[in-house]
TrEMBL record:
Residues in 4-oxalocrotonate tautomerase-like domain copies: 2-51
Database matches in InterPro entries: 4-OT-like_dom (IPR004370), Tautomerase/MIF_sf (IPR014347)
Name of one Pfam family that matches: Tautomerase
Organism from which the protein derives: Flagellimonas zhangzhouensis
MF term (GO), any: isomerase activity
Tagged with keyword Ligase: no
Coiled-coil parts of chain: none
Keyword tags: Isomerase
Keyword flag Isomerase: yes
Protein name per Swiss-Prot or TrEMBL: Tautomerase enzyme
Amino acid sequence: MPHFQINLLEGKSEEQKKELVAEVIKAAQKVVGMGDDSYSVALEEYSTEEWKNEVYPNKIMANEEILVKKLGYTM
């Protein structure tokens, strides 16, 4: 069953987060199939400082070999 982990900077509204999750699931269903009950989504928000010191080095660059879509920036 597909599980998506979304990390993003804090500050998005609840409506924006709900829409993001809905669009991710909608796109996955279009490509992979399966119903809503087959998908789970985790969403974690970070401050800019946390992104720079934790997310970028430890969650992104430390796993660069499995990135399907590479970043267009460096820190």
